[in-house]
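Something for you to look into today, if you have time. Could you write out one complete protein record for me, on any chain you like? Leave the record below and I will have a look.
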Amino acid sequence: MTKLDAFGRRYWPTIALFIALLAVWQIAVSFSGIREYLLPSPLSVWNALWHGDVAWSQHLWVTTWEIVGAFLMAAGVGVLLGTAIAWSPMLANALVPFLVFVNTLPKVAVAPLFLIWMGYGIFPNMLMGALIGFFPVVINTAVGLSQVEADMLDLGRVFNAPQWKIFLKIRIPNALPYILSALKITATAAVVGAIVGEFVASQKGLGYVIVTTQSSMNTSVAFAALIWISVVGLVLYGIVVLLARLWAPWAEGVD
């Protein structure tokens, strides 16, 4: 069986579902008399994707940069904080309540503060995406580093391995599947955070495109922007899945 056959056999239900939904959508719009500004047809959205008056490449680049930056920031800060929590009980007691408090803050309400502090730009939207996506990485990193089989730790102590070496050789490989699982969640959360930031304060980006379509009622362009956002999120998620299979193929069931 070739890779193409395996791919088709695995994903044909999803592909068939999307085709069926698009067909129902097109038929419903064509025969129900729904106005274009309320629900554009799939053909109108397709035309807007490629032939609209929007500078898609420019907006797509800005949003992609924001999402990738938010993801990398959330991953880096999350792993560092999770490692600190697992390494020191005192740090865990100090950090966990504060991180829970930060995570419970309504992110939409925080976005205007970023605008006041940092103004318009890509970096505030990166911070918004990182703020939404970092918490699962912190928790999963701490859990993965802490929940190690006692026999493995005892084996390291038998050989008089120092604490840092046990951490590096035993705890980190044990935590890797947990971290990669959290990064899958963060990949989608970074998309949400970046778009929320663009809704509140931006002059470029796909979220900005959606906001500007409200005044012109150009709904097909808004749908096209949503599709581009989904494409960026799916690509980022696919990269994380690929990394998980390369770095931790033994732990596909951690999710």
